[in-house]
């Protein structure tokens, strides 16, 4: 049976690249410990099972909504979500989206500010741990939120970018002020170019 281990994808920037919005200390722990632990756990859980050798996305879709596979799903989806999150941020982020994305945002939300407000509200109102997403549903852009490790992938909706709102994403830098983390990320780090690339 194939046992190719899953690996921690490289960060797309240095650990201090997002400082001061997200400190190198937060990234170091979030990426180097949390994200890595999901990879290590998944590899342990699938060794010598029928899921060994499958891609991450195959594992996520095969284990979604299966209570007896929740541990595997949670670790696999958290690997995927975190890799997507790192790419949703950039030290050159914030500002105006590229033209094609901007037009889609205006068609779906009216204007960029309304889109950003909806994203911030989703990030703020996700009770407990989870994720706030900009997604494409058919031809329309929408904002959605998911709890814990859940992702819109399980529902066939295409994710464009994501904000991690687990406390481990912001607590060292912002303590309990999730609103300050969310607003700073949206204004200064959000990688609209990545979202446009994901329109496909
Ligand atoms: Fe996280």
Brief digest:
The chain is mainly alpha-helical and 200 residues long. 48% of the residues lie in helices and 12% in strands.
Structural class based on helices, strands and sheet pairing: mainly alpha
Number of helices: 8
Strand order of the largest sheet: 2-1-3
CATH fold descriptor of the largest domain: minor pseudopilin epsh fold
CATH superfamily of the largest domain: Iron/manganese superoxide dismutase, C-terminal domain
Query: How much helical structure, as a percent, in the residues?
Result: 40-55%
CATH class of the largest domain, named Alpha Beta
Mean pLDDT: 95
Overall description:
This protein is mostly helical. It has two domains: 64 residues, Helix Hairpins; 99 residues, minor pseudopilin epsh fold, CATH 3.55.40. It is 48% helix and 12% strand. The protein contains eight helices and three strands. The chain has a three-stranded antiparallel β-sheet. Helix 1 packs antiparallel against helix 3. It is globular and about 50 Å long. The termini are far apart. The mean pLDDT is 95. The chain binds fe (ii) ion.
């Amino acid at each position: 049976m194939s046992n190719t281990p899953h690996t921690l994808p490289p960060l797309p920037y240095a650990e201090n690249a997002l400082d001061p919005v997200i400190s190198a200390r937060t990234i170091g722990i979030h990426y180097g410990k949390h994200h890595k632990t999901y990879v290590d756990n998944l590899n342990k859980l699938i060794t010598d099972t029928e899921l060994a050798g499958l891609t991450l996305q195959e594992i996520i879709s095969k284990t979604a909504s299966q209570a007896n596979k929740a541990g595997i799903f949670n670790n696999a989806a958290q690997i995927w979500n975190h890799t997507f999150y790192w790419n949703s941020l950039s030290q050159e982020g914030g500002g105006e989206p590229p033209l094609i994305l901007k037009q889609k945002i205006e068609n779906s939300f009216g204007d960029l500010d309304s889109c950003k407000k909806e994203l911030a509200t989703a990030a703020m109102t996700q009770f407990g741990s989870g994720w706030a997403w900009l997604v494409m549903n058919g031809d329309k852009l929408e904002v959605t939120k998911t709890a814990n490790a859940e992702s819109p992938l399980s529902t066939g909706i295409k994710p464009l970018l994501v904000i991690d709102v687990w406390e481990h994403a912001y607590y060292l830098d912002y303590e309990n002020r999730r609103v300050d983390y969310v607003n700073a990320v949206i204004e200064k780090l959000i990688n609209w170019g990545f979202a446009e690339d994901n329109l496909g």
